[in-house]
Structure formats: structure tokens, C-alpha cells
Design brief:
about 50% helix, mainly alpha
């Protein structure tokens, strides 16, 4: 018979009971998901979809004009990262930051920030990059 480590004062039946309760609890939680939509969910979703369609238009135009996208620097093929000093893309700055922000979900982040700041439609916003 192989030696197994066991806590000194816990009986085998107590350990089995605790393990069974843990597994049943895990299964119960996983089988009954409850989706909670965050504040401004619909607006964030619309913003992300709008950014996605804009990025697709840029990518399609870039493919039409240049025939390829630099997948080494732009692995998601967003079309937003590439040749330096063009009106819409650059190689300057942190590549990791560019890859992170070339994601439609950033539009949702901005919606969150704008709402958090109390901005309303028509408010003037200044940004510096």
C-alpha cells in the first residue's frame, strides 16, 4: 500500500465530504451563470462595433492600395500599424501600446471614461497623445 500524506486530525470520510461539497459547489456555480451587463453596456457595444467597422474600412483600403499588411508589427491585421509617417499609421512609439489600442474595445473604454467624467453629447473634448 502506497503512503499518502493526510492531515493529522481529519478523517478520510471528512476529506471526502469536503471534496464532494467543493465539486458540487463548483458544478452548481458553473451551471447557473448569471450575466450582469455593466453600466452603459449597449452604448459601449455600439462604440466598439463602430470602431471595428472603421478599422475594417481602413484595413480594406490599405489592402487595396498596398496589397498587404505588415503582420510582423500588426498581427491582428488591423491596418492601423505599419508604414511610418503616413496620415493614419506610424512605426514611432511603443509597438506593444499600438497593438493594445488597435482594438475596437478601446472605443468602449472611452465611452466608460466619458460617462465617468459626466460628458454629454455635444461637449467639447481635448485629447493629447
Amino acid at each position: 500500500m502506497a503512503m499518502m500524506w493526510r492531515p493529522g486530525r481529519a478523517s478520510r470520510s471528512a476529506l471526502v465530504l469536503v471534496a464532494t461539497i467543493s465539486v458540487l459547489g463548483y458544478v452548481a456555480v458553473e451551471q447557473s451563470p448569471h450575466k450582469i451587463k455593466k453600466k452603459y453596456y449597449e452604448e459601449k457595444l455600439r462604440a466598439a462595433k463602430l470602431m471595428d467597422s472603421g478599422m475594417k474600412a481602413i484595413r480594406d483600403q490599405k489592402l487595396l492600395l498596398f496589397g498587404r499588411i505588415d503582420t510582423e508589427h500588426d498581427p491582428n491585421e488591423s491596418g492601423m500599424i505599419g508604414s511610418g509617417l503616413s496620415p493614419i499609421t506610424s512605426k514611432e512609439g511603443s509597438l506593444q501600446a499600438k497593438q493594445t489600442t488597435a482594438n475596437p474595445n478601446w472605443a468602449a473604454v472611452f465611452v466608460h471614461w466619458y460617462r465617468q467624467a459626466g460628458l454629454k453629447k455635444g461637449d467639447v473634448v481635448a485629447m493629447g497623445f
